[in-house]
Structures are given as structure tokens and as C-alpha cells.
Amino acid sequence: MxxxxxxxxxxxxxxxxxxxxxxxxxxxxxxxxxAGVIDWIGPRNSLPSAYDAHPRTGLAGRLVTPGxxxxxxxxxxGGDRAVEFEMRLNGASYEEVARAGGGIVSTVKATxxxxxxxxxxxxxxxxxxxxxxxVTAIEIKSGYGLDIETExxxxxxxxAIMDRRPIRVKTTFLGAHAxxxxxxxxxxxxxxxxxxxxxxxxxxxxxxxAVDGFCEGIAFQPDQIARVFxxxxxxxxxxxxxxxxLSNLGGAKLTARYGGLSADHIEYLDExxxxxxxxxxxxxxxxxxxxxxxxxxxxxxxxxxRKHGVPMALATDINPGSSPLNSLLLTLNMGCTLFRMTPEExxxxxxxxxxxxxxLADVGTxxxxxRADVAVWDIRHPAELAYRIGFNPLHSRIFxxxxx
Length: 404
Known about the structure:
alpha/beta; 8-stranded parallel β-sheet; 7-stranded mixed β-sheet; 15 strands
């Protein structure tokens, strides 16, 4: 018997594999785990006799899914923008908010002023909320430093989270997020003098798993993003992009050209961009939190994504400005209610397809050989995860084969 061997029984498993039935559902299933890996999954009455002597844990008919994955977050940042939120609701314009020190400038200022210890303590509070909802892996971006040292600090904090909590973290360098005040009107200089040197420094410290950017009229143009992606490619790092959120600059096509992991937001994506993503295998990351908070009306083209077989992931986009959303379970409901995703598409979006958006091949489904990262729920049918609002039915979370 292998160390930490156990068999989970008396459960229904939403494996999220491509099994031909909804959710990859196996009724009255058993899951055998050892050394942090799933050894076997199937109907309980087919459990091999080799597991007869293994300890068993009965789950009283509960539902088991893969551990949830939040594949797009800005969870490390300084301060908040609650006052700015109140100002907007009281009728202040974007310009008035900016003149009062609001917007991304305020978050950059707060993040630069914070110590790594403060950034970590604040981030852990947000991470704990996700862990309590069955999340076992998250992505964390930089992008609120916009100078070399603070960008590195944000990524160091993101790495440190794994030492403090039982959760997997993938880090993303987002130096091309915005232009800081000291480079106002000099985007190209910022890319050359700060963003690219920061990327090289972060890679040199082993702090980067992927590279992102914000391709938009209020941020960076495709040719500027391409210069950053060229360096990422040189360093052997995969890319992803905030694309087509407010307009269509062809960011998704650019990302597909680089074989990108994902294009995120994509409200203004057209069919040509969808086709490019389909051909490249680029995942569409849907972010209803920003759509909701900004009171947008242009929804992402879910029908076109389905038509061309583009995998859809869902994520919170946790950030202090446009998506102060700290619940992946609520995100499931929002994806269904706001964008008419099905509950199965939503659950795949935070398991199988979220893993794909992060380039992770060992999580996202329940199958032999995968990491034993699963969530146990006090529900009978997986659609209930997207159906309820403001309700957390998590019974327990298993991370690397250990209840954590």
C-alpha cells in the first residue's frame, strides 16, 4: 500500500472528462488516491480488488468535482477603490475620479507604497475566501507596480502564497497593463525602459510562468504588445492577453499568432478572431465580474465560441477597480445568468478549461494519473453550483490527496 492511500466511496463524481455524458458524471463512484495522485476512478462496483485493503472514506452520496481553478486574478495589490466606487455612483465622471486620484493610478500608488509583508497579508485574506469555495489553483498577475522593483515584489508575493497556503499558484507578468504617470504619453519608452527589462529580471529570478498584456485604446497597441510577446517567446514563456474588452484591436488574433494560452474578456471579439483562436487552441477566458461592475452591455460572443469549438474558461478577475469579485461560485452563476452559458459550460470553465488556460495538464479533471485535487460538495447535482447565489455548499477540499 502506497503512503497516504485512501479510497473515497459513496459519492457521485463529476469528472469533467470527455466521457460522452454530461459533466462526465459517474453515479455511485469510487476514487482511489495515493501519494497525492488519483490511481483509479469508476463505478464503486467495479473497484479493483487490489484496493480491498486500502482505508475507505464514505462521503454519504455527496458530489465530488475537480478542485476549482481561478485562472485570471489580480489578487496581489495594495489598497482598494471603494471611495471611487461611491464617487461613480454619486455621478462623478471618469475624469473627475481621475483628478481626485482614483483609477489605476491610485492602485499603483498604494501597491508601490506597500511592503511585501503587507501585500502578502492582504492577498492571503482573499486567497482564503477562494480556498473556502473549493479552489485548489489560481493564477496571479503583476501589473500594479509599473516599475521594475514593484513588479518583482508582486511576483515574489504571489510565489510566497504557496508557502503559506495549500494552493497552487501560477504567476503571470503583466508589466504591459498601463502606463504609469511618469511615462504619460510615452508608451513606447515605457515598454522599452521598464516593461521589457522588468520581464527579463523577473524571468531571471524564476518568478514568471506566463506573460500578459492589456491591448486596448486606453492601454497598449498590438505592435507594442507584440514587442513584449517577442521577448516572452525568446525566454520560452507562454503568452495570454486582455483582449477586445472595450473595442476590437485584433488582440485575440495577435495572441493566437503567438500560440497564446488564452485571450481574456473578449466582449468585442468578432468571428475572424474566434476562428484564429480555434485554430491556435487558445482558450477564451470569460470575466463576468468586470462586465457587471462596469455595467457593460456588449456581451462576449458565446454562440460564436461554441460554433467554432473554442474552449471557454471562467474566472473572477479579482481586482480593486473593475472586478472586486472574490467568489468563484458567484462567477459560475454570473456566467450563466449574464451570458447564458450552461451550468456544464460554467463548471468546465473553472475546471478542465481553466487548467488549459494556465497550461496545466495534471488538474482540471478527475482521472487516473491526475493530481488528487478535488472538492466535495453537499449537493446531489453539479448544476447546483451555478444555480445558487451567495451560498457555499463545500463540504471539504482535498489538495494533493490531503484534506486541506
